[in-house]
Amino acid sequence: GRWKGISMQSLLQIAEPNKDATKVFFYGHGRFDERKELYTIEEVKNDQVFIAFAVNGQTLPRKHGYPLRVVAEGHWGSHWLKYVHRIELA
């Protein structure tokens, strides 16, 4: 699919995280429970991770994670977190 979203790199610039931050945690819902996925700050700074809100020119459908979904280059799409509701830096 053609994903459209918000660059996590851009969000980091706005958030101005502590320079000691090395990880980015995304929280969402899995099929049956809460899930979280971890990406390194380097992946985010290299623009390999973004938050999608649309796919193929359409608002992200529920089955694809509406309202927000992680899209991460170099990671299996089946592991991209859906239904994102919180992001933390550690």
Q: What does this protein look like?
A:
The chain is mainly β and 90 residues long. Helices cover 14% and strands 40% of the residues. The chain has helices at 8-15, 41-45, and strands at residues 3-7, 23-29, 34-40, 49-55, 58-59, 69-72, 86-89. The strands form two sheets. Strands 1, 4, 5 and 6 form a four-stranded antiparallel beta sheet that branches. It has a three-stranded antiparallel beta sheet with strand order 3-2-7. The mean pLDDT is 91.
**Bulk shape:** globular
Alpha plus pi helix count: 2
Q: How big a fraction of the residues is strand?
A: 35-45%
Radius of gyration: 13 Å
Return the structural class: mainly beta
Please describe the biggest sheet, giving its number of strands, its sense, and whether it closes into a barrel. 4 strands, antiparallel
* Fraction of residues in H or I helices: 10-25%
Mean pLDDT across every amino acid position: 91
- Tally of strands: 7
The span between the termini is 31 Å
> Topology as H/E string?
EHEEHEEEE
Q: Uncertain segments of ≥5 residues (pLDDT<50)?
A: none
How is this fold's topology laid out?
Blueprint: E1 3-7, H1 8-15, E2 23-29, E3 34-40, H2 41-45, E4 49-55, E5 58-59, E6 69-72, E7 86-89
Antiparallel strand pairs: 1-4, 2-3, 2-7, 4-5, 4-6
